[in-house]
Q: What sequence folds into this?
């Protein structure tokens, strides 16, 4: 497994499967997210309790706040196949405001050093719960919640606070 990505590191050039309101497509991660300000958050799994009930909904309901804070795109990455991710995104009414990465083989999770083996719980390799603020393809902030079910550092409100504290907010 790779060393964990850090602030100052560029996103890797890696093909990922993007799930959006327009469907699914394979894209190069760096080309796709390499311009502007992006919040990329990762969850252990679609439809899992904390991810489905708390993590994703915070970003969906907070989308306007992220836009006002200068965020051009919100992206959620999860280790699930694109069919599951698309069903989750649709059922969460998220497709209008969040793009998704379906990392079915945990390739991106491993490349970013954000993979965790949850096989003991029957889940296999998954993303750790994390959130990054990315500017022009470079990681500016990385926050990780280490305990399963924990949602403190990586919640939508926590990320908005980081953006606000850093003065990233767009001027009116």
A:
């Amino acid at each position: 497994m790779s060393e964990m990505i850090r602030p100052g590191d560029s996103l890797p050039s890696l093909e990922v499967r993007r799930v959006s309101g327009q469907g699914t497509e394979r894209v190069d991660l760096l080309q796709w997210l390499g311009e502007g300000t992006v919040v990329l958050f990762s969850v252990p799994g679609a439809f899992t309790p904390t991810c489905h009930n708390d993590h994703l909904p915070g970003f969906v309901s907070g989308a306007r706040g992220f836009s006002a804070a200068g965020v051009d795109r919100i992206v959620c990455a999860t280790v699930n196949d694109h069919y599951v991710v698309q069903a989750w995104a649709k059922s969460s009414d998220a497709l209008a405001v969040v793009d998704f990465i379906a990392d079915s083989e945990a390739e991106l999770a491993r490349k970013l050093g954000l993979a965790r083996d949850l096989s003991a719980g029957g889940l296999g390799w998954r993303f750790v719960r994390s959130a990054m603020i990315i500017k022009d393809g470079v990681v500016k902030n990385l926050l990780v919640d280490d305990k399963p079910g924990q949602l403190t550092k990586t919640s939508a409100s926590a990320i908005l606070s980081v953006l606000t504290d850093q003065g990233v907010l767009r001027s009116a």
